Amino acid sequence: MTIFQNTVPESDSTTLNQAMPNAASQVLKGQSTLHLTPKDGILDLIRSIAEKQESSEPFYILDLGVVERLMSQWNSLLPNVKPFFAVKCNPNPSLLLALSSLGASFDCASCGEIMAIQSLGVSSDRILYANACKSVSYIKYAASVGVNLTTFDSRSEIDKLKKWHPKCELLLRIKVDNKTSWREFGSKFGALDDEIMPLLCYAHENGFKVVGVSFHVGTKQSDPKAYYETIARAKAIFNMASELKLPAMQILDIGGGFQACPLFKDIAAEINRGVEAYFCEVKNLSIIAEPGRYFAENAFTLVTNVIGKRVRGSTMEYWIDDGIYGSFNLPAFDRTSMMAKPFFMKDDDGDRNGGSTFKSTVFGPTCDSLDFVLNECELPEMEVGDLLVFQNMGAYTSSAATKFNGFNMQGFPTYVTYRNPN
Ligand SMILES: *Cc1c(COP(=O)(O)O)cnc(C)c1O
After folding, report:
1. CA-to-CA distance for 173 and 157, rounded, in angstroms?
2. By CB neighbour count within 10 A (0-12 exposed, 13-18 middle, 19+ buried), where does 376 fall?
């Protein structure tokens, strides 16, 4: 699988060249670079792309300035925690390359994700195979390319690994009850309290080194204490390992669940407090995390086209060319953070109907009656040919698009820009 085309970008293409030499050094297949400066407004950018399109189709804009700013926020608030970006959240190659050049490592859950990361030139020791249940063929692949750290929460995983990847080091994934997260992970993932000791022993008997503990407190965790409390539980497992005379544990994996919002400061403070309280005496400790949404959500803007309109009394109904079988597909995708803004293709239309808004419904293009994007929201009146722009569309969106009903909503072009973080 090749992701890159090794072409050199045109010399004046973006300010990205100065800011992120590695990210800019390759032009990505199926993606486009733009001739922009940071002072160009996003709307000018959208207009210039839309006008150049041969036939209208949705597109994404990825702002690497946002990614850079989030990485520097991460480094200043969690200086001791190494981020492993959760690739499933958004495997866009430009995003992955930028994160790699900013020093991130990667959480992969499948063979395809491992290959995508390797094709960036990232070494295997920067990949965590963070899937507690792996098929035999994927385990064999991981072994063949030297991805030597994975998670587990069952005996059967040990049995498979013993046969196909006996040198792999292990993190025990523990179950977290996440009542305060928006989407919890505990019902499917993680060892129960009374399974932990037998699993540690079973792994040891089979020649494996369990190097640490991993958890995920649920996506969009709103209670900073959830991290503190689970860090305390992880320490109890470190203690259990030393009481059982197993090799000392060294890796604390605090998972994902973060959002790039003001709450992140409080969450970081609780994590630091937890590490200080429970882990300050652990020798050679590495703390890692698996942020997905944090780095991806705010970096992407989606631009769709209004392709149909129906007026019903005072309600406006529109069709756009993306929907729940496209970027609005995954249940992990959260409509509360997306922001919809109409964009009128003709300048003089900016003030249609004196700026008044109407109760509006927005449908996706397929013939499934569930294919709604927005229901009863207030929007200015739009016409066929206008654009509907959605901000904060980088998390669990394009990564889950389908071709249902003959609408190919996979692989919409992504235009990469770098807007000054300040
Ligand atoms: C999906 C996932 C993540 C990322 O979660 P976010 O809520 O996007 O931060 C991290 N770790 C694992 C194991 C996951 O499955």
Report:
1. 12
2. exposed
Residues of the chain with CATH 2.40.37.10: 2-64+299-418
Tell me, using a 6 A CB cutoff, whether residue 78 lines ligand 1: no
Over 90: is that where the pLDDT of 325 sits? yes
Residue 89 Cβ contacting ligand 1 at under 6 Å: yes
Two tokens, residue 236 = 């109890």
What is the distance in A from the centroid of ligand 1 to the CA of 257? Answer: 6
Determine if ligand 1 sits within 6 Å of the CB of residue 292.
yes
Q: Looking at ligand 1, which atom is closest to the CA of residue 173?
A: 13
Candidate from 87, 113, 216, 263 with most ligand 1 atoms within 8 A of CB, to mutate? 216
CATH of domain 91-291: 3.20.20.10
Q: How many CB atoms lie within 10 A of CB 355?
A: 8
Note the pLDDT of residue 63: 96
151 CB near ligand 1 (under 6 Å): no
- Cα 77 to middle of ligand 1, angstroms: 20
Please indicate whether residue 130, judged by its CB atom, sits closer than 6 Å to ligand 1: yes
Q: Determine the 3-state secondary structure of 75 from DSSP.
A: helix
Atom of ligand 1 nearest to the CA of 395: 8
Query: What pLDDT score does 351 carry?
Result: 64
- Is there an atom of ligand 1 within 6 Å of 218 CB? no
Tell me, yes or no, if the pTM score tops 0.85: yes
Where does 289-398 have alpha helices with state H?
A: 293-296
Residue 316: its H or E element? strand 315-320
Please tell us whether the domain made up of 2-64+299-418 is placed in CATH 1.10.645.10. no
Residue ranges of alpha helices (H) inside 126-205 are: 136-144, 155-164, 193-205
Is residue 58 within 8 Å of residue 303, measured between CB atoms?
A: yes
Q: How remote is the CA of residue 349 from the centroid of ligand 1, in Å? A: 42
Binning pLDDT at 50, 70 and 90, where does residue 173 land? Answer: very high
Question: pLDDT (tens digit, 9 = 90+) per residue, 79-135?
Answer: 999 999 999 999 999 999 999 999 999 999 999 999 999 999 999 999 999 999 999
Q: Where in the chain is the domain with CATH 3.20.20.10?
A: 91-291
